[in-house]
Amino acid sequence: MAYSHTDLKKGVAIELDGAPHLVLESSHMATGRGGAVMRTKLKNLATGAIFDRSFRASDKLDSADLSRSTMQYLYSDDDAHYFMDQATYEQIGLNHDVVGELAQYLVGEAKVIVLQFNDKPIGIDIGNNVVLTVTQTEPGVKGDTATTALKPAVTETGLEVMVPLFINEGDVIKVDTRDGRYLERHK
């Protein structure tokens, strides 16, 4: 499927220079005599690089042939992170560079989407937030609920998150996977 520059909306996957790219942002710019331009922020799904690029009306872009498989996270070792396909029960190992920083959000039996380009795994999608258990933090003090002060906390995956003072060890919290920010205490 071919895209024109007006089809480049957030979330669209295109093939550019032989690699899959995801449109993170787009804005339509009408220039005087030069014609309309679509300014985009793209993420190379193979390398993780993020960059800006503009496309003109004459540019035709191909859809990236991405396949998505729902898989369950099993475990990690020194070599890879292992996942099981929910439909076929086939297990695959993804290198640390494929999973990248998202490894710090992986907890046992988590459901993830494994992205594949030309039948080769290129990354995972774990959603915008995850629920993690706090394993280490300073104890909260009674009355510390109405302040915006933060303290460091370590989660079950080893991720360090700044949390409000009322969060204690054993609490379950929701964390934003895009920036590692505390969102809320999970019930």
Explain how this protein is built.
- The protein has 187 residues and is mostly beta strands.
- The chain folds into three domains: 2-63, Roll (SH3 type barrels); 66-125, Beta Barrel (OB fold (Dihydrolipoamide Acetyltransferase, E2P)); 129-185, OB fold (Dihydrolipoamide Acetyltransferase, E2P) (Beta Barrel).
- It is built from one helix and 16 strands.
- It has one helix spanning 96-99; strands at 2-3, 13-16, 19-31, 35-44, 50-56, 61-63, 66-76, 80-85, 91-95, 111-117, 120-125, 129-137, 150-155, 160-164, 172-176, 182-185.
- The strands form three sheets. It has a six-stranded antiparallel β-sheet, with no helix packed on it.
- The protein is flat and about 65 Å long.
- The termini are far apart.
Describe how the helices and strands are arranged.
Elements: E1 2-3, E2 13-16, E3 19-31, E4 35-44, E5 50-56, E6 61-63, E7 66-76, E8 80-85, E9 91-95, H1 96-99, E10 111-117, E11 120-125, E12 129-137, E13 150-155, E14 160-164, E15 172-176, E16 182-185
Antiparallel strand pairs: 1-6, 2-3, 2-6, 3-4, 4-5, 7-8, 7-10, 8-9, 10-11, 12-13, 12-15, 13-14, 15-16
Helix and strand succession?
EEEEEEEEEHEEEEEEE
Per CATH, what is the topology of the largest domain?
A: SH3 type barrels
Beta content: over 45%
Q: State the CATH architecture of the largest domain.
A: Roll
Low-pLDDT segments, ≥5 res: none
Query: Roughly how much helix do the residues carry, as a percent range?
Result: under 10%
Calculate the mean pLDDT score and round it: 86
CATH C-level class of the largest domain is: Mainly Beta
> Can you tell me the number of structural domains?
3
Spatial separation of the terminal alpha carbons:
44 Å
Task: Characterize the main sheet.
Answer: 6 strands, antiparallel
